[in-house]
Amino acid sequence: MLSRPRRNRVNNSLRSLIKENELTIxxxxxxxxxxxxxxxxxxxxxxxxxxxxxxxxxxxxxxxLSSLGIKCVSLFPALDDSLKDPNGSESLNPDGLFQxxxxxxxxxxxxxxxxxxxxxxxxxxxxxxxxxxPDTGEILNDQTLxxxxxxxxxxxxxxxxxxxxxxxMDGRVAFIRKALDESxxxxxxxxxxxxxxxxxxxxxxxxxxxxxxKSGDKKTYQMDFANTREAIRETKxxxxxxxxxxxxxPGLPYLDVVKTMRENTTLPIAVYNVSxxxxxxxxxxxxxxxxxxxxxxxxxxxxxRAGADMILTYFSEEAARLLQK
Length: 325
Ligand code: PBG
Prior knowledge:
39% of the residues lie in helices and 15% in strands. It has eleven helices and twelve strands.
């Protein structure tokens, strides 16, 4: 036989030499949920191993992640219903839970990059990412942009390093970039949720934040999961609008989108391995149906193979511990 591909697989050393893609701790961004209070550690039932942390415990968690070599966390606030209104006003409170969390994390752990989420849903009594017209149910694009820009400024004032618009309003990246520049935050970056699909995989996240839409769905702003050309269109727009990093979300069912975007931009690409993907692995592992740890590493490596530079994943700590060994 002239060609024997198995010859390159005969032992571990050879397999290491020919390895094309490798997951490292530098690739990992850890999403974390925050609640008000002290000494609170509230499990997210649909995401075993994930919690809503009060700020004191959040800071401890961030220190642990930092000691493992993780460079970036992405924070999400779980707010009491009493703080929610149709305009998401609490997002602009400079002393709100989210802003306090950013400040304390940056104080305790200045080297940890803090990424934020910019969208109305955790603050909105309607559970939508934008302002809802009460008469028609329409999600109002241009009226929402002002709130988003102010939210981003507020987060940057608190010390955020990377702003993550996840709302999918048209024109928001340029709008936020301008607002950041004009408020002296030229070095605060934007990781845009560029190709964010309208996905059933966000279910457990909405449990964690109690942020599911009260009526309707997100189909008029998040993308149809049948489409890829649309992702290229969003890529070109976000690039032109000044985004620093582009994201694809969810991850696993969208590896083709990661690859297509990789071929259509020179910007770094992030992928969000979302709550439902995490929950499925944990559930099957608990049942003994798959080896959760092995599936996790296979899944995370597949993002690298598809062309992602970084991965937002609830597996960050677990994977980092494994990679450290
Ligand atoms: C909010 C937001 C969502 C997620 C991140 N930011 C939910 C949504 O759009 O409904 C989902 C993350 C996950 O499922 O892990 N704009």
